[in-house]
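A.,

Following up on our hallway conversation. Structure tokens first:
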């Protein structure tokens, strides 16, 4: 039976990190928390619950999660965000895997709670995430802030029954703040990588996102909150591409001014 290290990164997560840690205690042989210099009660909660606790200035989502993973004692790891927890069904599934670790990686469905409502439709469900794997065969990658585990070629994987429970936000204002922060990071990363963005893309990408959320993924079955989330996700898509387009245009103006000076 392999040992499992649960790994969490945190910053000012006193509201949810306690339930996150407690949900992992039945499946993990150790729990590692890397905190980005929180100013609330997060550090004390972690220490009181007996985790291996480290503090490190935030390096970026991908970089911080890899730093935290490298602090683990065991090669088999589970990664949760501080505002997530394992459901009882997922806990049972993980315990069965511990008795017979058959694959290199395991994915979980994530059930998101938006302003007091569990979202069972839209793009937010099943919202599948690879969160348990052999770290010798995979590391965090992707593009900030949308990190993901990238496994080596030939690695095997499976999906477990049960959900990660995710407390996505408690208010519209909190969600809008998250959208603003994440879209700024995403636009900057896309700009650095040279991603093109026409004015047409700023229009059609958000339009398709709403259709996908509300119609294709049946967001209307989540009632009023399904409509709100579909719109908010559309707005998030618009913000990302509008910000990226703005960065590209500003860079173009800068090159023109430089050419004039020459």
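Then the amino acids I'd put at each of the 262 positions:
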């Amino acid at each position: 039976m392999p040992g499992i290290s649960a790994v969490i990164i945190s910053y000012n997560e006193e509201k949810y990190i306690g339930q996150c840690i407690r949900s992992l205690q039945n499946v993990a042989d150790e729990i590692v928390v890397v905190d980005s210099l929180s100013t609330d009660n997060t550090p004390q909660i972690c220490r009181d619950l007996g985790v291996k606790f480290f503090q490190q200035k935030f390096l970026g989502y991908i970089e911080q999660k890899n730093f935290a993973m490298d602090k683990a004692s065991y090669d088999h790891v589970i990664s949760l965000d501080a505002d997530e927890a394992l459901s009882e069904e997922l806990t049972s599934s993980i315990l069965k895997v511990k008795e017979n670790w058959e694959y290199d990686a395991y994915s979980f469905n994530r059930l998101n709670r938006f302003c007091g409502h569990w979202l069972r439709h839209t793009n937010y469900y099943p919202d599948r995430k690879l969160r348990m794997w052999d770290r010798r065969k995979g590391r965090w990658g992707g593009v900030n802030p949308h990190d993901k585990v990238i496994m080596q070629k030939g690695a095997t994987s499976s999906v477990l029954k049960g959900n990660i429970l995710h407390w996505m936000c408690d208010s519209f204002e909190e969600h809008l703040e998250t959208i603003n922060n994440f879209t700024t990071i995403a636009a900057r990363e896309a700009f650095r990588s040279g991603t093109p963005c026409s004015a047409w893309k700023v229009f059609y990408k958000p339009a398709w996102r709403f259709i996908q959320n509300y119609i294709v993924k049946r967001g209307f079955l989540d009632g009023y909150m399904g409509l709100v989330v579909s719109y908010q996700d559309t707005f998030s898509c618009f913000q990302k591409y509008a910000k990226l387009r703005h960065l590209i245009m500003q860079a173009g103006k800068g090159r023109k001014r430089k050419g004039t000076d020459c």
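The chain has a mean pLDDT of 95. Curious whether your intuition agrees with the design.

B.
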